[in-house]
Specification:
- 18% of the residues lie in helices and 33% in strands.
- A 7-stranded mixed beta sheet has the order 1-13-12-11-10-9-8. Strands 4-3-2-5-6-7 form a 6-stranded antiparallel beta sheet, with no helix packed on it.
- The chain has 2 domains: 33-104, OB fold (Dihydrolipoamide Acetyltransferase, E2P) (Beta Barrel), CATH 2.40.50; 110-261, Trna Endonuclease, Chain: A, domain 1.
- It has helices at 2-9, 110-119, 172-175, 179-191, 222-234; strands spanning 26-27, 33-42, 45-50, 53-58, 73-79, 89-95, 102-104, 133-139, 142-148, 151-156, 198-205, 237-246, 249-257.
């Protein structure tokens, strides 16, 4: 029954695209539920109205989410299986459009989506043999998200700036919630470029974001820009991955190499 409902609700489920690649969807079970965000009292919580009841829900992004004022914002919720949890729901996605075009905000879940797509070999232009993926590889003083054979992968999901049009130019200091951690991770990636190892970073957006445009360099973002530039010149690759989310699952939209667009 669950499989049949997926095929009815999500027509592209288990279907091939025009390039004959099987874009397997990451399914939600149970499906997500629609509600409305009333407020965001702090970075960890959102007050949400659902079916006439008001709940405090977990916010899975502790930083700023665009310039959104959370007042009557449509959202998608996942229900926790833990009956004792103080927040019975997690806010998985929001909408700021009349057409209910959803924006995924769960920075804790994005690695699960990426792992799913690697395991189903739909990101094979980035790394082949995705089924060999290993999670949370400790390197030096950092943990990198994945290793696939001889390739290290770090995943970032920027939410501080939501770009919807080509040419939007965010300030990197606003786009990256923890600059020190970002610099440490991309430096560790650069250090992996030895003994036939490869390294790459994925910028992931759970909405159809335009191609990332690097910011104009300022004194504030110089440290980030220098770290990225040095890593790119050493051979670290940067890819953008766009996904879409709705109540039934997450689907890969497109992905592309953006290395040559960054800080060069």
């Amino acid at each position: 029954m669950y499989e049949n409902n997926l095929k009815k609700k999500f027509p592209s489920y288990n279907a091939k695209n025009e390039n004959e690649k099987n874009f397997e969807m990451y399914p939600f079970n149970p499906f997500l539920e629609q509600a409305t965000i009333i407020s965001r009292p702090n970075r960890f919580l959102m007050q949400v109205e659902k079916d006439g009841d008001v709940f405090l829900c977990h916010c899975p992004s502790t930083g700023k989410i665009g310039n959104i004022i959370f007042d009557k914002i449509p959202c998608l919720l996942s229900k926790s299986a833990d009956q004792k949890r103080k927040t019975p729901y997690t806010v998985e996605a929001i909408s700021i459009s009349e057409t209910k075009s959803w924006i995924g905000i769960n920075q804790n879940a994005v690695n699960r989506y990426v792992e799913h797509f690697f395991r189903h070999n739909v990101l094979e232009e980035i790394v082949k043999n995705g089924s060999a993926i290993l999670r949370e590889q400790k390197i030096g003083t950092s943990k990198l998200d994945f290793k696939i054979e001889n390739t290290y992968v770090e995943v970032k999901m920027p939410l501080q700036f939501l770009a919807f049009a080509e040419g939007d130019r965010p300030d990197a200091t606003k786009c990256i919630s923890s600059p020190e951690r970002f610099v440490r991770h991309i430096t560790e990636l650069k250090n992996r470029l030895q003994d036939n190892e490869n390294a790459l970073m994925l910028l992931c957006f759970v909405y159809d974001a335009p191609i990332f445009t690097p910011p104009k360099q300022t004194e504030q973002n110089r440290i980030i820009g220098d770290a990225v530039r040095q890593s790119m010149k050493a051979g670290v690759k940067m890819w953008q991955v766009n996904m879409c989310i709705n109540p039934y699952g997450v689907e890969l939209l497109k992905y592309f190499d953006i290395t040559n667009r960054l800080f060069l």
